[in-house]
Design brief:
The protein is of the alpha+beta class. It contains 4 helices and 7 strands; from the N terminus they run ααβααββββββ. Strands 1-2-3-6-5-4-7 form a 7-stranded antiparallel β-sheet.
Length: about 170
């Protein structure tokens, strides 16, 4: 337990909590395009996820310091919140991508950008490699410095996979 507290205090999310709640699994498994997952468990003055959401899925904040609340039934998986979050705490996971793989839409601000078809390592929150994935697309929804990398990877890593590293 002390390890989890140490990890959380160092910025590593260690489980579901307010501001980091997984969607209802039945809804999640039926949503074409995926749904957003927000992992923002600390009260900070920030709301670009809400202001960028075109469908109202990320609910209005009563106080700008509130943790985000999501109505996953309204989410279309558009990734505007992914590209807008300055903390890189939003991502979309599409469980309808294929029978054994999910499509992860992750924020990415490193160079060089991975290319479509490239193999990548799927990393967990502490940077450990947990699977191999394939880059399916690279988009730039807000036309700024944050890209969204679409990576197919095994569904088994849905609760752990949070970033990528290029395979050399």
């Amino acid at each position: 337990m002390a390890d989890d507290l140490d990890l959380f205090n160092s910025g590593v999310l260690t489980g579901e909590r307010e501001g980091a709640v997984l969607p209802d699994r039945t809804l999640w498994e039926s949503k074409k395009g995926g749904v957003v997952l927000v992992e923002c468990p600390q009260r900070i003055p920030c709301n670009p996820c809400h202001t960028s959401c075109p469908t109202g899925a990320i609910r209005p904040f009563a106080d700008i310091n509130d943790t985000p609340k999501v109505d996953h039934s309204l989410c279309t998986g558009c990734t505007l919140c992914v590209a807008s979050c300055p903390g890189l705490a939003c991502f979309v996971i599409d469980l309808t991508f294929s029978g054994d793989k999910a499509l992860f839409k992750l924020p990415y601000e490193m160079l060089p950008l991975p290319e479509k078809g490239q193999k990548v390592w799927c990393l967990n929150r502490t940077g450990d490699c947990i699977a191999e994935g394939t880059v399916e697309n690279v988009t730039q929804p807000k036309k700024d410095r944050t890209y969204v990398i679409h990576v197919s990877a095994p569904k088994e890593v849905v609760g752990e996979f949070r970033t990528i590293r290029a395979v050399k």
